[in-house]
Design brief:
By secondary structure, the chain is mainly α. The protein has eleven helices and no strands. The chain is elongated, with a radius of gyration of 19 Å. It comes from Kribbella solani.
Length: about 200
């Protein structure tokens, strides 16, 4: 059974306490990282009992994935049709939930090491956190194809992951925080020229 199925069978925490626990979990992940996060630390931050956490979430991985997928501190980017690929990518990448949103980036940083070796965390992170965000980006590229902004000979799947790949390289390998200027440089100097494919020559 996947993580979503497990969560659906567990009793919810009453009132607004569940959201408070999720927000506290996100804050602890951002501060300590996944490896150092414990249920005790989350319980303390959320002013809840550890028993309350275990009644709702069976494991640390389940709690963390639920938190980063639903907590207010990690908003989803909006799917806004601006009329151009450039405008759509700027909206997705620079708005709430985008690459310049400090909390989601710090949360991802806190999970990177564990994602390589914790298969339960990796699967849930991919399905519950990444998938809906990739869907929004995918729609932006689909609209661009329909508008004729992307040449027929372009590998759209590869193109669609180029921007996040460059941002992640800068943020987590080079230690350069994402900025609107960096995002615009990648869009204008890499993404849009590549979208034109052989038509650019």
């Amino acid at each position: 059974m996947d993580a979503a199925g497990v969560r659906q069978q567990r009793p919810r925490v009453e009132g607004g306490r569940e959201e408070e626990i999720l927000d506290a979990t996100v804050a602890v992940v951002a501060e300590l990282g996944y490896d150092r996060l414990t249920m005790d630390a989350v319980a303390t931050a959320a002013k809840a009992s550890k028993a309350t956490l275990y009644r709702r979430w069976t494991s640390k991985a389940e709690l963390v994935v639920d938190a980063i997928s639903r907590a207010k501190g990690c908003p989803m980017p909006e799917d806004v049709d601006t009329g151009s690929l450039r405008g759509d990518l700027i909206s997705i990448s620079c708005g709430d939930g985008g690459f310049t949103d400090e909390l989601p980036m710090s949360v991802v940083a806190g999970l990177l090491t564990a994602l390589h070796r914790d298969h339960e965390l990796q699967k849930a992170f991919r399905e519950l956190f990444l998938a809906p965000r990739l869907e929004i980006t995918g729609k932006a590229y689909e609209r661009a194809v329909v508008r004729g902004e992307i040449a027929p000979d372009v590998d759209v799947d590869l193109l669609s992951v180029t921007l996040p790949a460059v941002i992640i390289q800068h943020a987590y390998v080079l230690g350069i925080p994402p900025t609107d200027d960096l995002i615009l440089r990648v869009i204008d100097n890499v993404i849009l020229p590549a979208a034109r494919g052989s038509q650019a020559s």
